[in-house]
Specification:
The chain has about 70 residues and is of the alpha+beta class. It has one domain. About 65% of the residues lie in helices and about 15% in strands. A two-stranded antiparallel sheet has the order 1-2. It is elongated, with a radius of gyration of 23 Å. The mean pLDDT is about 75.
């Protein structure tokens, strides 16, 4: 059974609405909204620990996984 063009366009519109509503809900979620700040804070803590204990940190840079050592001065 073939679906009519009208039916397909209604389904596409509904999907667009669902996606837009989902994006709006994510922006209203405090966990999602604050995630970037939390990730940056975690990265700073990891660098500080590496500096304190003389360890490197593993990062992805220029298409490669590399170990970098934080500068000793802070």
């Amino acid at each position: 059974m073939q679906e009519s063009g009208l039916f397909l366009s209604i389904k596409e519109k509904d999907m667009t609405d669902i996606q837009a509503n989902s994006a709006t809900k994510k922006l209203d979620d405090p966990d999602i909204r604050l995630a970037e700040r939390a990730l940056k804070r975690a990265a700073l803590k990891a660098r500080e620990r590496a500096r304190r204990f003389g360890h490197g940190i593993i990062i992805y840079e220029n298409g490669e996984i590399v170990e970098k050592y934080p500068d000793k001065n802070g």
